[in-house]
Amino acid sequence: MTCIPRRHEPLSQEMALTIACERPQEIDSTVTPTAIETHEETSEASRIDSLLTVFRSHPRFLLTSHARPDGDAIGSVLALAEILDQLGCETEVVFADPIPFIYRTLPGLDRVRHTPSANDVDPSADTPAILLECDGIARTGLLGLEGRMLINIDHHASGRAFAAVNWIDEHACAVAAMVYRIAIAAGVEITPSIATCLYTAILSDTGSFTYSSTTADTFAIVHDLSSKGANPSQIARDLYFSNPVSKVRLLGTALSNLKYEGPLAWTWVTSKDMDQAGADAEDCEGVVNYLIGITGIESAVFLREVPDTSQFRLSIRSAGKLDVSKIAEHFGGGGHRNASGCTLDGPLNTAIDRILTEIRAGL
Ligand SMILES: [Mn+2]
């Protein structure tokens, strides 16, 4: 294991050089990498170096991710918090929204604060904030981030370099894969809890290793994580075989509302449907995957009425031809080529017309 500086002074040139030299130099002289590969590798190594320089020169960080956090957001934030523990930093983990039930067993959850403002956990503007999977501070749903030093780590195609330090890799299967690379570069120990958090994040963000972002590199990472204490069958049970009955009832309603037209399928649930099923927003997670799982369907949309508003929250999926991150961005949302989301004003039929028109034009 690499020796890690635990002091928090700005790095001396000598120390920065030491860190740069610690990078593994695994160059196979029999292979000539293309210019693009060389450029990308250099840029990734230098971005991780920049991050480590920041981590080692501040005593304390706020960590957060997007509103309505998913498995990648939560697992990656918790893993990064433990990595920062090992680097000798203090951290505060804060989310604007509660942690969904299926992630209740993740190690380190007791350190999560759920509150509307980052100032509630650390009012000092000197404490930098690390944002995972956000294209700006608005995506966190948190107040109190303005004026802080911001660090942005993201793997969304819609990612933007809005922060003081940015690392965006839209080819990463999950932001957890990027956090894993940070851990390796920092030389920290991948503990069973880091391994469990990162494995959970990658499992959920690759749709159980089914999305096109899943590559040999994904399996190399989860292979390492399973050898370091992540338990694949236990994590799968916690994520996929622990559904509350309200979720299954709501799925029944959503599937009975199903409509389709050529390669396009869509469905919805209203606030009333959710009340009748005793369901909440997190019970809607994954419904859209049943639609994109229909043979011949190229794009699928699930609309959920947001309680006490006239708006609908949309989950959009593509089987591969259509880039649905572009569709979501058109309506102020974002995401990935195959999975994205946005919010539209109601009423329901207007929201459906707007999204279907946009998707038909793209298919
Ligand atoms: Mn993600």
Description:
The protein has 363 residues and is an alpha/beta fold. The protein has 2 domains: 13-239, inorganic pyrophosphatase (n-terminal core) (Alpha-Beta Complex), CATH 3.90.1640.10; 245-362, Diaminopimelate Epimerase, Chain A, domain 1 (Roll). Helix content is 39%, strand content 17%. It has helices at 13-22, 35-56, 71-86, 175-186, 192-205, 216-227, 232-240, 245-256, 271-277, 287-292, 324-330, 348-362; strands spanning 60-65, 90-95, 112-114, 129-132, 150-154, 165-168, 259-261, 264-269, 299-305, 311-318, 334-335, 339-345. It has a 6-stranded parallel β-sheet, with helices on one face. Helix 5 crosses helix 7. Residues 1-38 have low confidence and may be disordered. Bound molecules: manganese (II) ion. Residues 72, 133, 155, 174-175, 205 line the site of manganese (II) ion. Manganese (II) ion (MN) is lined by residues 72, 133, 155, 174-175, 205.
